[in-house]
């Protein structure tokens, strides 16, 4: 109450030549903040490039008053005015310096964008390095598989034919129902969309050309590979990963069996044999689907469809699609076995590497398909 009964601080201003002069006095405390702000607003130092502030007449100064004075100093500095403080006691100078330090401490709050950008750059760099290391490890695994494959030519009795036949059955025969239905429906969709667009030009018959070239050259092998990556690749990773968790692979090594020769090579060989056969089957079912819609919707006869298809599709178109299949099979099997052997510790690790296996396999298949397209385009075929 005694503080409220005393008079608030005051401010006077003027010029000493080209320099400005401000004199502060009275009580600069929190209780008089509205009066102090009004006093500071009346200070007139227009045109001055430096201002001398004399606070020798200030009777009391607390953090509220010091903050108002500091804020006025900051405004002058932002306007390019130099400030000279005079008449301050040690306690007053220390308090004003503390206000200055508090202002500096607030500045990091204005840098979240800089911190986020740095974190983003660091994360991008770490991911790039991890990707390069992963590519190197996968390439080393490919070298180990190639070495095992080359040694098997000198020791054919060690190639496990029973295991290969077993995996061909699982990869190929068990996949026929879902692959056949999927390919048949894709053929119908392609024929329908192609006819819908070509009808505007009176060229519905060329739907057969579109169907034949797109399925035999690209879509058949691509859809089959993606299906096999999701179905068979994930199964390979989960099987090998579970064996790793149960320490069965360690036990195999203990009794002298090579996991590359026992687990990886039969699966890769089975995939390389089964995938081209599945592509042939998928192409056939997709063409049947497209032919069914063409006969029902376009009014073509079976003879007209086959004649138009033979005109549009050359042997090279058919071979190009099949050439890709063994390459895609090796990519899928390589990634699936590699991720399976990387599993460690728990069922959660099996799930994580199974997901990675599918994603990486599909990515590499699409990447390889793009590379094939560029090479074939360069070769003119």
Choose one word for the global shape: elongated
**Sequence of strands across the biggest β-sheet:** 1-2-3-4
Question: How many β-strands, per DSSP?
Answer: 4
Average pLDDT for all residues: 85
Biggest beta sheet summary: 4 strands, mixed
Unreliable segments of 5+ consecutive residues:
none
- β-strand amount: 5-15%
Cα end-to-end separation? 97 Å
Q: How much helical structure, as a percent, in the residues?
A: over 70%
Count of helix runs:
13
Helix and strand string, N-terminal first?
Answer: HEEHEHEHHHHHHHHHH
Instruction: Give me the secondary-structure category.
Output: alpha/beta
The radius of gyration is: 40 Å
What descriptive keywords fit this protein?
381 residues, alpha/beta, four-stranded mixed beta sheet
What's this entry about, in short?
With 381 residues, this protein is α/β, with parallel strands linked by helices.
Walk me through what this model shows.
Helices cover 74% and strands 9% of the residues. It has a four-stranded mixed sheet with strand order 1-2-3-4, covered by helices on one side. The longest helix has 43 residues. Helix 3 links the parallel strand 3 and strand 4. It has 381 residues and is of the alpha/beta class.
Topology, please?
Layout: H1 2-5, E1 10-16, E2 19-28, H2 33-41, E3 50-61, H3 63-78, E4 82-86, H4 90-106, H5 112-154, H6 161-171, H7 176-198, H8 207-245, H9 248-254, H10 259-298, H11 302-312, H12 315-342, H13 347-379
Parallel strand pairs: 2-3, 3-4
Antiparallel strand pairs: 1-2
Helix pairs in contact: 2-3, 3-4, 5-10, 6-10, 7-8, 7-10, 8-10, 8-11, 8-12, 8-13, 10-12, 12-13
């Amino acid at each position: 109450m005694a503080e409220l009964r005393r008079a608030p601080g005051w401010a006077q201003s003027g010029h000493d030549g080209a320099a400005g002069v401000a004199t502060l006095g009275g009580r600069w405390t929190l209780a008089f903040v509205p009066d102090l702000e009004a006093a500071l607003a009346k200070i007139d130092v227009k045109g001055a490039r430096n201002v001398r502030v004399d606070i020798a007449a200030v009777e009391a100064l607390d953090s509220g008053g010091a903050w108002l004075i500091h804020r006025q100093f900051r405004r002058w500095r932002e306007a390019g005015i130099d400030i000279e403080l005079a008449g301050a006691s040690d306690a007053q100078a220390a308090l004003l310096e503390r206000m200055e330090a508090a202002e500096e401490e607030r500045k990091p709050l204005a840098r979240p964008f800089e911190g986020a950008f740095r974190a983003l750059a660091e994360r991008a760099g770490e991911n790039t390095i991890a990707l390069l290391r992963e590519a190197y490890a996968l390439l080393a695994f490919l070298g180990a598989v190639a070495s095992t494959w080359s040694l098997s030519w000198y020791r054919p009795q060690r190639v496990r034919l029973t295991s290969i036949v077993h995996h061909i059955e699982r990869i190929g025969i068990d996949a026929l129902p879902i692959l056949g239905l999927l390919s048949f429906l894709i053929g119908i969709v392609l024929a329908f969309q192609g006819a819908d667009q070509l009808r505007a030009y009176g060229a519905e018959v060329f739907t057969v050309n579109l169907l034949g070239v797109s399925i035999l050259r690209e879509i058949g092998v691509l859809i089959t590979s993606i299906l096999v990556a999701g179905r068979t690749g994930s199964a390979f990773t989960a099987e090998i990963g579970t064996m790793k968790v149960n320490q069965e692979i360690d036990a195999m090594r203990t009794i002298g069996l090579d996991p590359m020769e026992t687990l990886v090579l039969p699966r890769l060989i089975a995939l390389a044999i089964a995938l081209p056969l599945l592509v042939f089957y998928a192409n056939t079912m997709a063409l049947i689907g497209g032919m069914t819609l063409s006969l029902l919707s376009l009014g073509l006869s079976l003879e007209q469809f086959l004649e138009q298809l033979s005109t549009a599709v050359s042997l090279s178109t058919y071979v190009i699609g099949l050439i890709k299949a063994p390459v895609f099979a090796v990519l899928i099997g390589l990634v699936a076995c590699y991720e399976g052997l990387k599993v460690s510790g728990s069922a959660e690790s099996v799930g994580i590497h199974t997901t990675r296996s599918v994603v990486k396999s599909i990515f590499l298949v699409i990447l390889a398909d793009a590379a094939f397209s560029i090479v074939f385009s360069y070769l003119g075929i």
